[in-house]
Amino acid sequence: MFLKSRWYSQRVNSPVTLARWGTVGQPVLILPTAGGDAEEIERFQLIKALSPLLEAGKIKVYSVDSVGGRSWFYKEGTPEQRMRMQDQFHWMIREEIVPAIRMDCRNDDIPIWTAGASIGAFHAAALVCRFPDVFTRALCMSGTYNLMRFTEATHASDDFRRASPLYFVPHLQGRHLELLRQRHIHIATGEGRWESLPESWGLANVLGSRQIPNFVDSWGPDWHHDWITWRVMMPKYLSEWTSSP
User: Fold this and answer.
1) CA dist 87 to 42, 56, 138, 153, Å?
2) Cα 63 to Cα 31: distance, rounded to the nearest angstrom
3) Do residues 85 and 65 touch, judged by C-beta distance below 8 A?
4) DSSP assignment, residue 61?
5) Taking Cα atoms as reference points, which of 63, 51, 56, 57 lies closest to residue 20?
6) Contacts of 23 (CB under 8 A, 6+ apart)
7) DSSP string computed for 97-156
8) Beta strand 14-21 with 2-9: parallel, antiparallel or unpaired?
9) pLDDT tens-digit profile of 27-43?
């Protein structure tokens, strides 16, 4: 049920781990929180919460080291280098992780869902927005979408503008935008400790202005920015999604 592979990625100049749980079902790529690695979701018992879906063959879960999020969390390099890393991280996923997932699924065209919490939610949304030909649905929980507030830079670099939906989505057009309008980004959040509902609405307003399907789902003040929340949210939504026609 569990499988792990590791290689060195020239795109992010770092070793990268890809972990997998499950044997069949809809592939779901879960992006870790800022300092997390590929096995974070097992240590924090999210895999245990998802076990009924895994055992039923409804989903097949993948996760990867948070190389992009880690650069923010540990302030690795200059602000410009950290902003560039977000773009490189996304391309590493598109060109290295996606082929690995599809090879594992033995299907060269299988659509992939993304999911994540906190900064992982940023990456989950960004991947669908950047690569709607590959990623078809995102579950974004307790998201932080305006990452510029975590850097000392006063302006977003071109690299970061390419990586952040808040910057690049307003300028999309043509086939890319048409395809993205056939996708869905679900933005779930609590309103308790360390949560920020305005962050979720900020992303939703940008998506909605371009007629990209999305939905903000607030769970209210009793739900906090914590794994306890995410262990309830993710099984609920993935169960609903895999049960719908």
Assistant:
1) 27, 36, 18, 16
2) 6
3) no
4) E
5) 63
6) 1, 57, 60
7) IHHHHHHHHT-TT--EEEEEETHHHHHHHHHHHH-TTTEEEEEEES----GGGGSS-SS-
8) antiparallel
9) 999 999 988 999 999 99
Q: What gap in Å lies between CA 24 and CA 21, rounded to an integer?
A: 9
Tell me the C-alpha distance between 58 and 95, whole Å: 26
Global pTM?
Answer: 0.95
What does the pLDDT look like over 136-191, one tens digit per residue?
A: 999 999 999 998 877 777 788 999 999 999 999 999 999 999 999 999 999 999 99
Question: What phi and psi, each to the nearest 5 degrees, are found at residue 61?
Answer: -100, 135
Three-state secondary structure call for residue 171: helix
> CA 242 to CA 237: how far, in whole Å?
9
- What does each C-alpha distance from 183 to 4, 103, 130 come to in angstroms? 29, 23, 12
At CB < 8 A and 24+ separation, what contacts does 2-7 make? Answer: 3/104, 4/38, 4/39, 5/100, 7/96
Q: At CA 169, angle to CA 12 and CA 67, rounded to 5? A: 20
Domains in the chain, CATH or no CATH each: 2-243 (3.40.50.1820)
Cα(122)–Cα(7) distance, rounded to whole angstroms? Answer: 24
Residue appearing with tokens 């290689």: 7
